[in-house]
Amino acid sequence: MFRFIFYVFIALSTISCSTALKVDLVADEFRQDSLKYFVENHGSDERGLDRVIAFELQDRGYNISYGTKRDRPEDVDVLVVYEDRWQWDMSNYLIHMRIDLRSPKTNVLLGTGSSYQTSLARKPVNDVIKNIVSGMFDSK
Amino acid sequence: MKKFIKLSISICAILSGVSCTINLDPHEFDIEGIKVVSLSGIESVAVHPKLVGAKERELLLAATTVIVDEDEFTKVLTGEVEKVLKENSVHVNSDSEKSIEIQVVRVSLQPDRTTYCVIDYNRKLGEGEAYGFQSKAKEFSFITACENALKNAATDILNDSTTIKYLRGE
């Protein structure tokens, strides 16, 4: 019985502070300084994560703008969309974040990265986004 | 049997200090009851799978490692679309003038209090451009979530107005 409780405790402790970053390096053809990127706010994000993502990409030298769908320029080459999911545990934290690169014309997925973290492992939003963007855009 | 497998996965995930490895095989999914509004006026169509040729990927889901292969999802999704077309008296023929090409490009699992299964797929009609779509479902079991996401993808493909118009030649 004690052994059972011990295993449950270990498993729950492991799960409660786990993080998972799933990113693949974006193909070279979609990581070009000459391309125009647009980070699109999905409309229900009032925290301005589009701006955070845009600044991360700007720091890497990409030609980027951000805003809502209405702000999207017509000549965008790569659309950056994201999905943020928040959870409450003493305070709100970003449990899951996914960033996709898509073709603005066909919506085809060109690249993707995501991060998951539990409450005890919570990192600031900027760090989560930085890790995803780094995994997708920084050559090793 | 399927319930037993799901129960085993849950027990394995909870009790084990080390992670379990589960192969998420879409061929074992129970996909029933795909509803279509109307396929009348469609005579013949070819349904082609387009494989990405990727290797199996490991997805970490809490204490469980889930192995997915997008190409297997493509095959099952294509098969389901073909099956429903046949059930609705549409002749499925690889030489048909009208064709649908289906490619699953990404299967993702997003843990939360429940699990989201997200399927990104492309659909191409004839010689046109491929368009990207996403289907998702949320369930306590990631297997059921992916079953539902795949079912949603097939339902969306078969009820998409652009697809229906193209297949009818309108």
- Given helix and strand content, the structural type of chain B is alpha/beta
Approximately how much helix is present in the residues of chain B? Answer: 25-40%
Number of strands of chain A: 6
Helix content of chain A: 25-40%
Number of domains of chain A: 1
What is the spatial order of strands in the main beta sheet of chain B?
Answer: 5-2-6-7-8
The shape of chain B, in one word, is elongated
Determine the strand fraction of chain B and express it as a percent band: 25-35%
**Which overall shape of chain A is indicated by the principal axes computed on the Cα atoms?**
globular
CATH class of chain B: Alpha Beta
Architecture overview:
The complex is a heterodimer of chains A (140) and B (170). Chain A has 140 residues and is α/β, with parallel strands linked by helices. Chain A contains 3 helices and 6 strands. Chain A has one domain (2-137): Double Stranded RNA Binding Domain. In chain A, strand 2, helix 2 and strand 3 form a beta-alpha-beta unit. The longest helix of chain A is centred in the first third of the chain and has 15 residues, at 2-16. Chain A starts with a helix and ends with a helix. Chain B has helices spanning 2-15, 70-87, 142-159, 161-168; strands spanning 20-23, 44-49, 57-61, 64-68, 91-92, 99-111, 115-125, 130-139. Chain B is built from 4 helices and 8 strands, in the order H-E-E-E-E-H-E-E-E-E-H-H. In chain B, the strands form 2 sheets. In chain B, strands 5-2-6-7-8 form a 5-stranded mixed β-sheet. Chain B has a 3-stranded mixed β-sheet with strand order 1-4-3, with helices on one face. The mean pLDDT of chain B is 88. The A-B interface holds A 4, 7-8, 10-11, 14-15, 18, 20, 22, 85, 87, 95-96, 98, 100, 102-103, 105-109, 112, 114, 116 and B 13-17, 59-60, 62-63, 105-106, 108, 110-112, 120, 122, 129-133.
Name a few traits of the molecule:
heterodimer; A: 140 residues; alpha/beta; Double Stranded RNA Binding Domain; 6-stranded mixed sheet; globular; B: 170 residues; Rossmann fold; 5-stranded mixed sheet; 34% helix; 33% strand; elongated
